Amino acid sequence: KKMLSKMDVIVTSTETLAKDMRNISDKPVYVIPDRHELNFYKRQKVHQPVEKPVLVWFGYAANFVRLSHLLPYINENNYELLTICEEPVSGGKFIKWELESVNNNILQGDIVLNPPDLYGYKSNNKSVSAWALGLPVAETVEDIKRFTSYEERIKEADKRYQEVKESYSISRSAEDLINI
Asked: Is residue 150 over pLDDT 90?
């Protein structure tokens, strides 16, 4: 509360966070989604027809538990799973997360796994990163099944890459801040 008293406005990255801030402060609250410097993503995935796509998950090791509803299907169907994080987790082939190589490591996969945050606090920045790299994002088993199709991967990747260029460039955040 003491810190809030020093603020003129509050900016959050999700509507859930904004709602919480509105409940504890009378200051104006704005939502500016997480956006990305698109030059960080030097290349996009060139999708190829494959018998079984490689799945990739990246993030903090403590959040690997968010895949628990997907792992039975992944294991039963013998999908290769790459896990890119700061330390090994209980599934997949571990690749240490490093800023210099993370994008190239993500591009080793064909589908990024990013189950939704059940509480609405996390932004979609991991999905946006995947989309900027030209990869589809699977949140559910049904998504994995759909993106097993080479054509569906390409269609989703193209659609989402356009969305990233139109809606998730960091220059949009600068415009939003100026307008506050």
From this structure: yes
Strand order in the sheet with 81-85: 93-96, 81-85, 55-58, 111-113, 137-138
Helix (H, G, I), strand (E, B) or coil at 150: helix
CB 54, CB 74: distance < 8 Å: no
d(CA 8, CA 21): 13
Q: How far apart are CA 153 and CA 155, in angstroms?
A: 6
Beta bridge partners of 113: 138
State the pLDDT at residue 60: 94
DSSP character string of 95-127: EE--TTTHHHHHTT-SEEE-PPPTTS-S-SHHH
In terms of Cβ atoms closer than 10 Å to its own Cβ (0-12, 13-18, 19+), residue 26 is exposed
Find out whether 106 and 133 touch, Cβ atoms under 8 Å. Answer: yes
Sign of the CA dihedral running 45, 47, 48, 52: positive
Residues, the chain: 180
pLDDT in tens, 5-15: 889 999 999 99
| Structural contact between residues 81 and 91, judged by C-beta atoms closer than 8 angstroms | yes
